[in-house]
Amino acid sequence: MNILMIEDDKELAEILTEYLAGYNIKVTNYENPEVGLMALAVKKFDLIILDLSLPNIDGVETCRILRNKTDLPIIISSARSDITDKAACFSVGADDFLPKPYDSRELVLRINSLLRRCKMSVHKDKATCGNKIFELNESKMEIKQQGQILKLTNAEFDILSYLIKKSNFVVSREEILLNVESINYESSYKSVDVLIGRLRNKIEINSKVPQYLITIRGVGYKLINE
User: What are phi and psi of 4, to 5 degrees?
Assistant: First the structure.
């Protein structure tokens, strides 16, 4: 496994590189984000670990550039861990956020979890191509359920769009608040629940016994799209 790390703390980078080598993970670190971005174009990596406090280009902007260039999983590793920074990172495409300081063992767990999810996602996409229940057309602002266009409000469209992109994975209410632009992050979890209820009324045969938009108790929601 090859990891691209962009981290300007040289000592930390050396510690993590040595530690992860024990798990057959090769880390290539760049202290300068511009050099790291160039490396991405010429070397093959499986995952990216990114700090936020970087020279020349801020970490959030670096994350945005990375996401425009690649679909690789991105883990943010930073001491800047207030909710504003987290929201900014997730909004530009980060997949996980690990506040510093942390136990190196937790980093390994998160790396393995992300890579496992990505492989499952690729497998599912290939296996179910052409058999999706819900189809999203962002350019037309349309969502079809089994070929029929759904009539949705802007907030309903945005939430269902996000759930379609995360099909068959559990999505927490906090994640929805962080990633759905038409809902303010300051909104309560209750606001999300209300919108989920409205969506169920439109997509389920029986909203009280949902088949597609199901609740994972204590965790969040999952959209079944196959």
Answer: -95, 120
